[in-house]
Amino acid sequence: MKKLVVILFFIVMTEGVGFAEEPYWAEHGIKLDGLTPAQTTVLEETINSIGNLPPKKVAINTAIYIRLSRFQRLYGFSFEGKTIKNWILRRVKSITHQNTWTVAVNDSQGDFKIGDRFFEKADFMERAYTLIHEARHSDGDGYSHVRCPESFRYVSAGSPDIDLIAVEACDDRGDGAYGFQSAFLFELYARDIANQQEAGLLYNGSVARIVGNKKE
């Protein structure tokens, strides 16, 4: 009986207590819809971790870095976590939980719909580059994807049921969503941030989705 009273007391005392969200949602006018407190925590931990990424020195061959790094050229600033975090947040209007066929989509240039995989299966790197990828779709005309060519020999590691030549899952330009995604991943790899091998593999997979180069 005493345990029941304690439980009831806890319920009464906590009823109506809201989940404390990060202030940047209000600062940027971003609306969260349909996310549980646990999902909000995952999302905020991801954004905060992006903001805390250190501008470590390059740890790979300098000539390779100079040849392949495109981060500053695309983003317009040097690699630094806090700036990347703000770059993402400026391109978000709302974030809604929806069990989409993919990790996330960006509708109407800023309305993000995030699926279960983002919260339940993706690790930090996948969540981070997903937010960057979708944020790029908020720019300009949206930087829409194109259908992958019939000769495309790569698979979607995260969505094995999808045939990439049957959907618009590639870019025909180097400054689209996959360009920004791959540039971010390359810096993680080159600076040995997080898991370098995973970052390198994810970078290779992202670059493979760029099947044309209309504009840098």
- Cα(first) to Cα(last) distance is 70 Å
Count of separate DSSP helical elements: 10
Radius of gyration from the alpha-carbon trace, in angstroms: 19 Å
Proportion in β-strands = 5-15%
What value does the average pLDDT take?
A: 89
Derived from helix and strand composition plus strand pairing, the structural class reads alpha/beta
- pLDDT < 50 stretches: 1-18
Total E-strand runs: 6
Query: Given the C-alpha coordinates, what overall shape results?
Result: globular
Largest sheet: 4 strands, mixed
Can you tag this structure with a few keywords?
10 helices, alpha/beta
Written overview of the protein:
It is a single chain. By secondary structure, this protein is an alpha/beta fold. It has one domain. The protein has ten helices and six strands, in the order H-H-E-H-H-H-H-E-E-E-H-H-E-E-H-H. The protein has helices spanning 2-14, 24-27, 37-51, 62-68, 71-75, 81-89, 116-120, 124-136, 177-190, 196-208; strands spanning 31-33, 94-97, 104-107, 111-114, 146-147, 168-170. The strands form two sheets. The protein has a four-stranded mixed beta sheet. A hairpin with a 3-residue loop joins strand 3 and strand 4. Mean pLDDT is 89; it is low at 1-18.
